[in-house]
Structure formats: structure tokens, C-alpha cells
Specification:
Number of strands: 0
Strand content: under 5%
Structural class: mainly alpha
Length: about 45
Amino acid sequence: MAITTGFKEFESAQRTLAGIAIVHMIRKVQINDTKSTVFKIFCSLAS
């Protein structure tokens, strides 16, 4: 029996998990950029 994750494609699951990992890194202050907002840091890392 296969386990379903709710994602139709592997790529969409991979992008979602990458975004979650980026948010966790920002919250833990592992990325230290005092000149940018959290949104700008996320956008620069996600692109």
C-alpha cells in the first residue's frame, strides 16, 4: 500500500519542503542579515 502525501508531483513537494526549511533557518537566526526584512531574505533564498 502506497503512502499518499497530498502532492501530485514530486517537484511541488520538494519546493514546499525547501520553503519550510528556509523559514526555519530564518526563525533560528541562522541567516543574519540586519539590513533586510524577513520577507526579502526569504525571497532571495527561495529564488
